[in-house]
Write a structure and sequence with these properties.
Low-confidence stretches of chain B: none
CATH topology of the domain at 55-167 in chain B: Immunoglobulin-like
Order of helices and strands of chain B: HEEEEEEEEEEEEE
CATH superfamily of the domain at 55-167 in chain B: Fimbrial-type adhesion domain
Largest sheet of chain B: 7 strands, antiparallel
Order of helices and strands of chain A: HEEEEEEEEEEE
Mean pLDDT of chain A: 80
Strand content of chain A: 35-45%
Number of strands of chain B: 13
Shape of chain B: elongated
Number of strands of chain A: 11
CATH class of the domain at 55-167 in chain B: Mainly Beta
Distance between the termini of chain A: 91 Å
Strand content of chain B: over 45%
Number of helices of chain B: 1
CATH architecture of the largest domain in chain A: Sandwich
CATH architecture of the domain at 55-167 in chain B: Sandwich
Shape of chain A: rod-shaped
Helix content of chain B: 10-25%
Oligomer: heterodimer
Low-confidence stretches of chain A: 14-40, 178-184
CATH topology of the largest domain in chain A: Immunoglobulin-like
Structural class of chain A: mainly beta
Distance between the termini of chain B: 57 Å
Chain lengths: 184, 169
């Protein structure tokens, strides 16, 4: 009997001295607790604060076509767009192979063709934004650009040039995505 | 051992020769700091324009008798290039004239003649026209002229026009 009483007392003491475990629900990402707490023996609750943090990295996939032939079209698209609140993903036509920033292709003989890039029926100016995706309205968008052939072709030849699309995170303008945006 | 090494080198050389660069779209995703990576993508723009030209050379020229201080036989003929002639920049189409510049009759009588272009004599094999890229039609007028022959008869001969595309400076 005495033996069992001793065991009981030892067990009770051990439980009283063990720190209380804090259980939390594991999150999808990087949630963790910093500290554990335990209540003491006084009437006032012993408060502990646990900082809960969760980092959501931005995501997006923008696809820019490798080539286009004058007279044809290209599709610039953005998918799975997640950026900070108040931000939007933007794609702008920022550079051309012409030193003056015009949309031109040139031949090996030095002949030049000046062409127009159209978004719908509207010409896109060099530097203009062609696509904006605001996550408040959707997480994807795409635009089809036409590289229009001018009517006044002069010289024969094989012509080449290039344009550069720049991707950036800008301030959301509160307007709907892509198709409804004004080019500018 | 040497054979294996050479085989390996050959295989490597062949695979390099057969490798074709694959063009691919640019895909932009967030970088480590969340900024776009890469920040830009380039699209190559290309276009091919075919050369085009139509040069018309009359099949025959019939000399007409011209009564003057001296009787001569003359006729103008025109070599034309249609509107919309299109070549590479700095190229021209050169038309040269070859032949003996002599007509003969079935009886064997000969009648030499001269050819002038723009008033200047044309040598055998000489250039009679040069056409460049132009929206407008172009032409060159040649004059065939012979003196009054000694003998009567039906005289005829041929000339050959040769067209070549020339690269300029």
């Amino acid at each position: 009997m005495k033996k069992w009483i001793r065991i009981g007392i030892a067990l009770g003491l051990a439980l009283a001295l063990c720190p209380a475990s804090v259980f939390g629900t594991a999150g999808d990402g990087s949630g963790q607790t910093d500290s554990s707490g335990q209540t003491g023996g006084s009437d006032q609750p012993d408060l502990r604060h646990t900082a809960v943090r969760y980092t959501v990295a931005p995501t997006y996939t923008v696809t820019i076509p490798e080539t286009v032939t004058l007279g044809g079209t290209v599709e610039v698209s953005a998918q799975d767009v997640m950026v900070g609140k108040g931000e939007q993903l933007e794609v702008a036509l920022t550079e051309t192979s012409d030193p003056d920033g015009a949309f031109t292709v040139t031949s090996a003989e030095g002949a030049e063709i000046v062409y127009t890039v159209l978004l719908g029926q509207k010409p896109v100016p060099a530097g203009g934004t062609v696509l904006a995706v605001n996550p408040d309205f959707g997480d994807s968008g795409s635009v089809t650009l036409t590289f229009a052939v001018p009517e006044n072709l002069v010289y024969a030849g094989d012509y080449t040039g290039s344009v550069t699309f720049t991707v950036r995170i800008g301030s959301a303008d509160g307007e709907e995505n892509a198709e409804n945006q004004e080019v500018g | 051992m040497m054979k294996k090494f050479l085989t390996g080198v050959l295989a490597l050389a062949l695979s390099g020769a057969l490798a074709v660069p694959v063009l691919a779209d640019t895909t932009v995703n967030p970088g480590e700091d969340g900024s776009p990576s890469p920040s830009a993508g380039t699209t190559t723009v290309s276009f091919h324009v075919d050369p085009a030209y139509t040069v018309t050379i009359p099949a025959a020229v019939q000399l007409d008798k011209v009564e003057g201080e001296k009787v001569t036989y003359e006729k103008d003929m025109t070599v034309t290039a249609s509107a919309g002639l299109r070549l590479l920049k700095n190229q021209t189409i050169q038309v040269t004239l070859g032949g003996e510049f002599t007509m003969t009759s079935p009886e064997g009588a000969e009648l030499p003649y001269t050819v002038t272009a723009g008033g200047s004599p044309v040598q055998k094999g000489g250039v009679v026209a040069s056409f460049g890229t132009s929206d407008a039609a172009q032409s060159s007028t040649l004059r065939f002229a012979a003196e009054d022959p000694e003998f009567a008869g039906q005289y005829s001969g041929t000339v050959t026009f040769t067209l070549r595309v020339q690269n300029g400076q």
